[in-house]
Design a protein that fits this description.
The complex is a heterodimer of chains A (about 120) and B (about 110).
Chain A: E1 5-7, E2 10-13, E3 19-24, E4 31-37, E5 44-50, E6 53-56, E7 65-68, E8 75-79, E9 88-95, E10 107-108, E11 112-116
Parallel strand pairs in A: 2-11
Antiparallel strand pairs in A: 1-3, 3-8, 4-5, 4-9, 5-6, 7-8, 9-10, 9-11
Chain B: E1 9-13, E2 18-23, E3 32-38, E4 45-50, E5 55-56, E6 61-64, E7 70-75, E8 84-91, E9 103-108
Parallel strand pairs in B: 1-9
Antiparallel strand pairs in B: 2-7, 3-4, 3-8, 5-6, 6-7, 8-9
The chains are: A mainly beta (about 120), B mainly beta (about 110).
Chain lengths: ~120, ~110
């Protein structure tokens, strides 16, 4: 079956524009994660969903960042009024089980590279 | 979340074993050690994970010390395609996972 897909793969935005990044997780996966990865650094956790519930949004850097997963499958990460420091690769990952499982391998998508001019 | 410490870079000769260390001295009892690797321009890929016992799969072996404060990922016969950034993370499977900056492994012919 298909893995995790993300769209668009590349996005260029002018400072101040709003952007929406889409993640299609593996079908049936309960957990969904968003990460931000700056150049040369490891992925930084943004937010976590278990089905449609956003259980952890402690990593979202400001109130300009908003994520949703309304039907427990596809997720969208929205960034309002983009700024240059938002330039990064945004990674989405899904895993089969929810919280508390002893096995929770994350399957990552290829990421969306956002460049804010 | 427990933090991890890894050397920023390592070299390994092709065909030899690559041993990648990770310190996680603040790990708590219900936290697992996971290893992922990331090849340029791709998302991270799962390699292996463990709680307290050593683990082996088709990709690698994971050795966790008895006190669980450190671990070593072993690639038994490194190939050029194993050149990547390797991340050691600890997670209590409550959702949040904290990646560090990883170890850049360069396999040389």
């Amino acid at each position: 079956g298909a893995g995790v897909s993300q769209s668009p793969r590349y996005k260029v935005a002018k400072r101040g524009q709003d952007v929406a990044l889409r993640c299609d997780p593996i079908s049936g996966h309960v957990s969904l994660f968003w990460y931000q990865q700056a150049l040369g650094q490891g992925p930084e956790f943004l937010t976590y969903f278990q089905n449609e519930a956003q259980l952890d949004k402690s990593g979202l850097p400001s109130d300009r960042f908003f994520a949703e997963r309304p039907e427990g499958s596809v997720s969208t990460l929205k960034i309002q009024r983009t700024q240059q420091e938002d330039s990064a690769v945004y990674l989405c990952a899904s895993s089969l089980f929810g919280r508390g499982s002893s096995y929770n391998e994350q399957f990552f998508g290829p990421g969306t590279r956002l460049t804010v001019l | 979340d427990a933090k991890t410490t890894q050397p920023p870079s390592m070299d390994c000769a092709e065909g030899r074993a690559a041993n990648l260390p990770c310190n996680h001295s603040t790990i708590s009892g219900n936290e697992y050690v996971y290893w992922y690797r990331q090849i340029h321009s791709q998302g991270p890929q799962y390699i292996i994970h463990g709680l307290k016992n050593n683990e082996t799969n088709e990709m690698a072996s994971l050795i966790i010390t008895e006190d669980r404060k450190s671990s070593t990922l072993i690639l038994p016969h490194a190939t050029l395609r194993d050149t990547a950034v390797y991340y050691c993370i600890v997670t209590n499977n409550a959702g949040k996972s904290t990646f560090g900056d990883g170890t850049t492994l360069t396999v040389k012919p």
